[in-house]
Amino acid sequence: MQDNLDHMGEKKVILREVIRPPLWILAFIYLMFLSLVVAVWAAFDNRAAIFTGIAVTVLLIFIALAMKSEITIDSQEIHIGKAHIELKYLDSVEVLTPAQMQLLRTRDADPAAYLGIKFWISTGVKITLKDPRDPTPYLLISSKKSEELTNTLYKLL
Predict the structure, then answer these.
(1) Range 38-58 average pLDDT
(2) Which of 49, 75, 85, 88 could disulfide-link 4, Cβ–Cβ 3.0 to 4.6 Å?
(3) 10: confidence class by pLDDT, cuts 50, 70, 90
(4) CA atoms of 59 and 73, how far apart (whole Å)
(5) pLDDT score at 9
(6) Are 55 and 86 spatial neighbours (Cβ–Cβ below 8 Å)?
(7) Are 71 and 16 in contact (CB under 8 A)?
(8) For residue 154, which of 86, 110, 92, 108 has the smallest C-alpha distance?
(9) What would the mean pLDDT of 112-128 be, rounded to a whole number?
(10) Which helix (H) or strand (E) holds 31?
(11) Where do the domains of the chain lie?
(12) Bridge partners of 79?
């Protein structure tokens, strides 16, 4: 256990992937917000439009932060966003092609599965679970580093 701790006594992070929304999504949202600013400007005055412009800019920053997710693996657990599970409950890990990922997101989805997916990422990983107390059959995770994530998990299993 001591080998897996850093000098502060915390668990070492073996793999970390931060998934942020792409610029085109944020630009699209901002353009929608700017149409609201124009409507406010047309109905009221410049001060109201400036205030609305500042407000929607701040709101966009909060939206960008809320859309961010993180995958973290340490020596004992995997964290996907706010969800986490101990590695001892992982059964198998499978890299998914964009076609396989699309099917598991839609037609072949299990309602009990945990979906840690982002619509703008077409690849991912399916992690099958073996916890008899948990009805969740698998975790479906969007990842740009699917191969690295799979290799890391197999080394730890």
Answers:
(1) 95
(2) 75
(3) low
(4) 31
(5) 54
(6) no
(7) yes
(8) 92
(9) 93
(10) helix 23-43
(11) 21-67, 76-156
(12) 72, 84
Nearest to 63 by CA among 17, 40, 106, 32: 32
Measured in degrees and rounded to the nearest 5, phi and psi for residue 75 equal -70, -15
Q: What SS3 state is found at 50?
A: helix
pLDDT in the model for residue 82: 87
- The strand order across the sheet containing 90-96 reads 90-96, 124-129, 138-142, 114-116
- Tokens representing 135? 């009805």
| The two three-digit tokens of residue 9, written as one number | 């006594």
CA distance 95 to 146: 6
Decide if 49 contacts 40 (C-beta within 8 A).
yes
Mean pLDDT over residues 65-69, rounded? 93
Average pLDDT value for residue range 23-33: 96
- Residue that is written with structure tokens 């706010």 in the block: 82
